[in-house]
């Protein structure tokens, strides 16, 4: 039997899930993964170096950076772990698609599309949020550098786009009605 038409989508959804899990355990859980680094502080989804894990946080930085607007934007970053969960579900349904039935592949492509939307919104928000913080810091002559999580998230976005396309194409592939494994 030829390889299942669900396999390419399955691969991309798995890759996206792994990347999004890495993004989700960013600072303060794992300080090596961050969106923005300022001096010794690295900023992640649920806080920054030394802070507690929380949904939405205030920037512990001087001047016009500790604002309610930016605080509210950090809450939106919860879309990253949600997208990770959706990619995981897409992978789960895709496995059923690969093993048993076309319906699994249909659900995989729908969930991959949903995860892609979440990741897209989260990525646009995180790039603008930390872009604003970075530019306000540089006008205060404080150096900030981009962290690796931005590229991990971009990779996940591309993986989900490919995952959705390949899964959608996989729906129209050949599925045996019985005796498949
Ligand atoms: C930032 O603002 C919040 C709410 O206005 C306040 O509770 C917090 O102490 C401020 N933090 C700093 C470092 O200024």
UniProtKB/TrEMBL annotation:
It is a multi-pass membrane protein. It is found in: Membrane. One of its GO terms (cellular component) is growing cell tip. InterPro entries: pH-response_reg_palI/RIM9, SUR7/Rim9-like_fungi. This is Pali-domain-containing protein. Its main location: membrane. Keywords: Membrane, Transmembrane, Transmembrane helix. The chain crosses the membrane at residues 6-26, 38-58, 78-100, 107-132, 152-175.
């Amino acid at each position: 039997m030829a390889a299942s038409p669900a396999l390419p989508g399955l691969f991309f959804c798995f890759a996206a899930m792994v990347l999004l899990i890495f993004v989700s355990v960013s600072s303060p859980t794992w300080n090596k993964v961050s969106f923005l680094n300022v001096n010794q502080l690295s900023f992640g989804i649920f806080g920054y170096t030394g802070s507690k894990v929380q949904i939405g946080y205030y920037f512990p930085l001087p001047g016009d950076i500790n604002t309610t607007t930016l605080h509210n934007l950090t809450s939106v970053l919860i879309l990253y772990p949600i997208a990770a969960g959706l990619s995981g579900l897409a992978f789960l349904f895709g496995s059923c698609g690969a093993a048993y039935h076309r319906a699994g592949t249909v659900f995989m492509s729908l969930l991959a599309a949903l995860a892609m939307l979440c990741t897209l919104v989260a990525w646009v928000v995180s790039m603008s949020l930390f872009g604003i913080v970075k530019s306000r810091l540089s006008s205060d002559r404080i150096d900030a550098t981009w962290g690796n999580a931005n590229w991990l998230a971009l990779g996940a976005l591309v993986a989900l786009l490919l995952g959705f396309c390949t899964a959608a194409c996989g729906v129209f592939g050949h599925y045996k009605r019985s005796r498949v494994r």
